[in-house]
Structures are given as structure tokens and as C-alpha cells.
Amino acid sequence: MQLLETLAIGGKRQLALVQCGDEQFLIGLGAETVSTIVKVGSGESEKGR
Fold it and tell me: For residue 46, is pLDDT > 50?
């Protein structure tokens, strides 16, 4: 698992792009929560774009 990018969106909330194997996920982080928002795609196919 690898943290690729984070973005603070106000308060104690952040968005994070995480790679797990060859898949990437956008997740939401709060003071007491972690939520998967969307599967972005395969890391291999994203690199080729």
C-alpha cells in the first residue's frame, strides 16, 4: 500500500489517493472516519495515459 497524494478540504477532512497493488482508490479521511469514495483504476493503465 502506498499513499500517492493528499488534499486538505477543510476542517479535519482530507482526500487521499492510495495505491494498493495495481489498484488506486480515492478515500475520504475525517477526524474519526475513513471512507472509500471511488476506485480510480489500475495503476498500470493510469501510468500509460
Answer: no
